[in-house]
Structure formats: C-alpha cells, structure tokens
Amino acid sequence: MTVVNDPGRSSHQASGGPSAYLTRRLIADVRHSADLTALADLTSHRWTDRLRAEARFHLAAMMNAIEQAIVSAVSDPPIARLLSELGPGYCRNAIEHQLGLLSPDFVDHLRRRSAMAMLLRQAEDGRSRRAASTLGEQALDAPHSDALAELTLAEQNWHMPMLLDAAMAPDLPAEPFHELAWSVAALLVQGCERLMEADGAAAVKMIAPATQRVIARHDEAEGAMGLARRFARALPPERRFSLAPAALADARLLLFAALAECETGLSIDAMIDALLDQAAAPRHALFRLMRIDDATVFRVAELLAPLTGTGAQDDEALAQFVESYRRVDQAQAARWLEGMMRPPALADKLALMAAAP
C-alpha cells in the first residue's frame, strides 16, 4: 500500500531520505534507555512494506492531532506566533530526524496497532466485494450490540484514508499517549528555539503546561482498547468463546484479543504479539485455548500470512499449519499459557540459559 503524498512536506523531505530513514529506524536497534531484551525483541519482529506504511501513517496522523491540541492550548501570544510560523504538521516531519525520542515499547505498540489496522483495512476492502461481516450474524442483546457498535466506530478511526496530513484521534493507552505527547512537545520547543535563535526557556514555560492540559484530558478508557476490554468483560464466558471465531474471521484482532484476555489472563498486547509471531506455536496454543475450529484457523492463517511470513498463496503451508494445530491439545496449550504468565524478566533469563551451549 502506498501512502498518499503529503503536500505539506518541504523539498528536502520529499526526496525520500527521511522517509527511508524512518523505515530503517523502525526495524533497527533503537538506541534508547531500555533493557537489552526490549531491543532484541524489536529487531526480531517482522516488518512488511505495507506494515511500515501503516505505521508511518498512524504515527504522523496521531502526532498531527496532538500537535494541534497543544498549539491550541498555548495562550501566550509570542509563543503562539512562533508555533504558527512552524506550520501545521511540523512534528510529523521533525520526528523523522529525532526517532530516538520513541522508545522500543512505543514502537512495539505502534506495530501492534498498525497491524490490526492494516488487517481491518484489508477485511473492509474484502467485504465490499464479498459477504457481510461474520460478527454481524451474531445475535446480541441490546446492551452488548450497542457496545460492539461503539467499538466498531472506534476501530474505524484506525483505517481512515492514509493521508499524512490527516489528524487521527490518538486513542492510545496512557503510557504511549504520554510518551507521544511529550515527544511532540519537545519537537515544538526545539522548533521555537530554532526560530528564536535563542534558548527555549520561554517556549518550555508555555508548551509544558499546555501539554499537561492535553494529557489531563486524555481518557484511555474511551479508546478502542478500552472499549474492547469493556465489551469483553461484560459477556459471559460461553459468549466470549462463541464470538472469538467470528472476531477472527472478520479480522477484528483487537476484539479477539480482548475476549482471550478475559479467558486467559494474558494482556491484549501479549495476545496480539502471539498472533503476529513468526513462530506458529503461540497461535496454535492461543487458538486451542479459545476453542477455534479448523476452518477458522485456516482462514486466519491466510489472513495473517503477510505478517507472520507464511505464504498467503501457499495452500500447502496453510494446510500444514492446520494439521499442526490439530496435534496441539489443551494440555499443551495450557503449558504455553503457564510459560507466558511468568514475569517477562524471569522468562527471558530462563530462555537465555536454555539456549546456552
């Protein structure tokens, strides 16, 4: 998928240099104050061209929205004039030269979000040509159907037209939102310093409280992840199991992950990582725990193939995935879950020792 050209970019940015740098930076080691395990995890993830394009769009569109909010919250006329001189979309361009501001945890979150959005976009295109959604065939009572509709609307925010000058509601969990908001604030301060050709203390004095007000207004419970959790927790267990295959069939990975979170105790992030893992074992275990039938497993393997590395057009590989799934029983799935429930730092150390000669 090609990202639509951004007319707001300056000539040196339109050359592709910074864009290529962003692509490399998303999949390279992030030199940030984080532990070695996070850095190793970052380099092991699979990034396709479409996923990189989706991630770049999400990063730019959310930064646009946060930048607009911060600029609107600055009341000091001199600083407001400087921010106006920077022009709209300043931060989405500036971040491409300051990617060290983004922590490995934030990049991981961006990858998950972008993968879910990419698959939603793909499924939406497919439904326009074929059948209605599988979830739409499920009979839900009024409170639950209303909650599902609200979640659907929130997810539509994720697969809006891919225009880099668009503004996407930054419906992030609290920690990623705080990180992105302060990154935008830092870039705005740096931009003001450049225009003033002086220390940015005056800009900090105005931009910092404006950013704090923007953060104070953020409510992660109203984002797609919060809505998905609320919907899943309101359902009885048997209903969660019956909806899980339909969610997968419709490429609603976030909804599936929220349903599975309620049943397994693993976080949504861990669920999405398992679905996107290049190894088949995590998906096998997760599907078995959620009682997913063979036909749905085949469809989901085909859906996820571009992200997991399985050949989407390779029927033999997809059939082998299902055959391997049939050999995974509940006991094996339970052992996988037990391992996943260990504290990550302990699990990493045990894995290192197990891999030692």
Structure description:
- It is a single chain.
- With 357 residues, this protein is mainly α.
- The protein has two domains: 11-139 and 159-221, no CATH class; 235-355, no CATH class.
- Helices cover 69% and strands 0% of the residues.
- α4 (49-73) crosses α10, α5 crosses α9 (174-196) and α7 packs across α14 (268-276).
- The protein is elongated, with a radius of gyration of 22 Å.
- The chain starts with 10 loop residues before the first helix and ends with a helix.
- The model is unreliable at 1-43 (pLDDT under 50).
**What's the overall geometry?**
elongated
Compute the gyration radius: what is it?
22 Å
Beta-strand percentage? under 5%
Integer tally of domains: 2
User: How many E strands?
Assistant: 0
Mean of residue pLDDT values: 83
Low-confidence stretches: 1-43
Order of helices and strands: HHHHHHHHHHHHHHHHHHH
The chain-level structural class is mainly alpha
Euclidean distance between termini CA atoms: 43 Å
Number of helices: 19
Q: TL;DR of this structure?
A:
The chain is mainly α and 357 residues long. The protein has 2 domains: 11-139 and 159-221, no CATH class; 235-355, no CATH class. 69% of the residues lie in helices and 0% in strands.
Considering the chains and any ligands shown, give keywords for the structure:
2 domains; mainly alpha; disordered N terminus; 357 residues; 19 helices
List the helices and strands and how they pair.
Blueprint: H1 11-14, H2 17-27, H3 36-44, H4 49-73, H5 77-86, H6 90-94, H7 104-129, H8 142-156, H9 174-196, H10 201-217, H11 224-233, H12 237-249, H13 253-264, H14 268-276, H15 281-289, H16 294-308, H17 315-326, H18 330-340, H19 344-355
Helix pairs in contact: 4-7, 4-9, 4-10, 5-9, 7-14, 8-11, 9-10, 11-13, 12-13, 13-14, 15-18, 16-17
